[in-house]
Amino acid sequence: QVQLVESGGGLVQPGGSLRLSCAASGGGFSFYAMGWYRQAPGKERELVATMTSGGSTSYADSVKGRFTISRDNAKNTVSLQMHSLKPEDTAVYYCNVKPLPLARNYWGQGTQVTVSS
Asked: Which long-range CB contacts under 8 A does 65-71 form with residues at least 24 apart?
């Protein structure tokens, strides 16, 4: 059973920075894909960024150039460095892990990011 523990998040002013981290356990091997999704009030959950164990990345257009995803394959950890935060980045951010290409997704408990002056 894969378990995810998230850290980071909080309240930041527009233009500020935050870093989210997620540690995944339970696999015993480098997970295929790890990443972050977010869900704002009244909106559907959306992809923010993902990264495969081979290093391929995918970003939402709205965060390109501002957010950077990174991971440690040996430790199965993934981080999201967020810069130039905007009020529209306010959401609950969820860590996501897909252990194998055809496996189910696993989700963290979510961490709140609020961008407000």
From this structure: 69/35, 69/36, 71/34
